[in-house]
Amino acid sequence: MPVTQSGRGSASGYEVVQASREFQTLRRRLGSFVVPAGMLFLGWYFLYVIVAAFAPGFMRTRVLGEVNVGLCFGGAQFVSTFTITIIYSRWAQRHFDPLSARIRQRLETGRRP
Amino acid sequence: MTTLASGGVVGIPAVNITIFAFFVVVTLIIALTAAGGNQTTTDYYAGGRAFSGRQNGIAIGGDYLSAASFLGIAGLIALHGYDGFLYSIGFLVGWLLVLLLVAAPLRNTGRYTTADVLDLRLRAVPVRAAAAVSTLTVSLFYLLAQMAGAGALVSLLLGVRSSAGQDITVAVVGLLMIFYVLVGGMKGTTWVQIVKATILAVGAAATTIWVLARAGFSLSGLLRHAAASSQAGSAVLGPGLLYGVNTVSKFNFISLSIALVLGTAGLPHVLMRLYTVPSASEARRSVVWTVWLVGLFYLFTLVLGYGAMWLVGGKQIESSPGAANSAVPLLAFRLGGTLLLGIVAAVAFATILAVVAGLTITASASFAHDVYAGVLRGGDAGPGEEVRVARVTAVVIGGVAVIGGIFAKDVDVAFLVALAFAVAASANLPSILYSLFWPRFTSRGALWSIYGGLISSVGLIIFSPVVSGSASAPGGAGPSLISDPHINFAFFPLDNPGIVSIPLAFFLGWLGSVTDKRPSDPARFARMQVRALTGIGAERGSQV
What we know:
The structure holds 2 protein chains of 2 kinds. By secondary structure, chain A is mainly alpha-helical.
């Protein structure tokens, strides 16, 4: 059975875990993926929004037949969303979940905070 | 060919009603069997946490692809071209925020509602009450949008012309939805969502292929036909028709874009679904499935929108009851006659029904779990009692939705949903993100950011051209809710409050925390962070 849900008791046990080297590695690992990925997709999205709002002429430039820059740029937002999704879920399975599960198991079986 | 919208009704109402009734019966059976002998608190709120990531991801897609997506966005593209596409991009990209920052830690730290997450670090009672108020407000905004869509659709498809007839149909939708929720709980509504999302995706894919086939499987050909049949000509292929009119409308668009991309991660009925899976990694997997489903679907709507522009024509869409929302039904009728129209109509109804059920269960959980058990009873309500209160609340909310839907039936659906996104991004998102990731966040910061975001976003909507003073507001809103042009208290020029209220809510969350005399407790942040990243102490699925 997992630790009780409300578990208000000794929060200080969690502080020990939080300070451990393994947990700090986990935290840093997550941050070093999520923060740049988040800034990348938000920046890319707002670039698109601003170009759509203030440079509609550029967006109308034809690329192939009737397909213009605007449709390609919009399509690229779809592609980038799918790509980040795939990369993140693979990364999380390989580099985050195993370490996270190891810390959890140690907590559940060993010293229960 | 049967007359198309000449008398305002398309196809044969009896066929539409039959297909719709068939769908209702099938989903009711599903809801009944899925519910089984259920209804512990976890069953009712979280479907026993027994759904797989794939099932839940499809169900989230079902919740997310509401009438606004299915009918609203395609309709906007059919009428205004490229600018409708801008909605779908914001709606899709917003999922990355859920995936990267919210899904897994939220599943690890909460039980049923987002208030559970805040509760881990902050003073329980006032913060829980605030979170419940904002959850209920966002859910009601969203409900209103869905019910408004139901009214417009009815007049088009079922031949219900009289205002009273429409009101009765809205009431029937409300009653059906209450029944789903009472009988099925989260398990039943999830299965309804899965069925609905699958039919919706298959139907949209088939219609898309059909449209492309008519254009010789050439996207360029489709665009050429669409532009040729539009009064605006090739301008429909680029941005600006809707939001490029003047500087105000451009900022309106930017405000909308901010709300769309940040709103998804604050939508309570989406976040609550993350609790129906057994673990954080399944929650992440859910979102991955949702991204694929939603992304492909929005690519379909692009084709459907331009297809409707080409094959139905803007004039016909605008003059039919339901205006933009009727583009896809009219397109289906033009392509596949009565039968395809009937199917599309049934899917659209099912969409409204299912999304309304999802919203109702979220709102009732928020009231019963946060307000009743958490605040009024000080966390002391028995589980049976809590579910009973949740059921009563579901009935009340259903009633409110019916009344609201009757009043809001002429408002553009995609637009109303965008307002719900703005309120969600302002009132919910800052406190969720701060609570999960910022060590110095305090109870006062949470209260300031929730109430500040809620009051500023709703307040700015009230004092915007949406409510008063505009015969036809720039940026797609159409005329104001108060149609008398002499009544004008719109001092805020933008239709969407996001550009002001979202940064303000983040700022207030920061300011409230750093000026709080009771600083944040590092021990409780440690507990939050360890639980969020490792899943220790999180409730597992009942069958896993």
